[in-house]
Amino acid sequence: MTTSELRSPKQVEDAAISFVMAQEATAGRMARDTRYQGAVADLVSGDRVVEVKAYGTTSRGETLWLEPRQYEAAKDDPDHFWVYIVENVRQGDPAHFRLLRLGGERLRQLLEKAKQRRYYEVPLPVAVYDAVSQQGD
């Protein structure tokens, strides 16, 4: 099978989700994709609620971003709320993906060090990007 580099964030996310669902099936848990359904996280798998964080390369030293409701769900029930980190996704070959699972006591410890941030998402439409990238300073 020939694989090619994944370019868009959606391609990276979709590949990570598919990979995690396959890994969960191997572990005897049937994962269900709950994205776009108003759920608190990406998947429900057995008794786990799973938020998947996809990284094109490595997550080493990075900060995990959780939505406020994800943080609350994880803090309220770290034994059932899991964060799965899928690394090395951008290269496209699932055989080279790496899965890190955070739950239970380890997740609880990480949540104790969480810092709340507030920010605004400002859209940057393609037309504006293209216009700005064509002009000099």
Automatic annotation (TrEMBL):
Cite a single Pfam family from the UniProt record: NOV_C
Protein NO VEIN C-terminal domain: which residues?
12-93
Specify the protein name.
Answer: Protein NO VEIN C-terminal domain-containing protein
Which organism is the protein's source?
Answer: Geodermatophilus amargosae
**Highest classification ranks of the organism:** Bacteria, Bacillati, Actinomycetota, Actinomycetes, Geodermatophilales
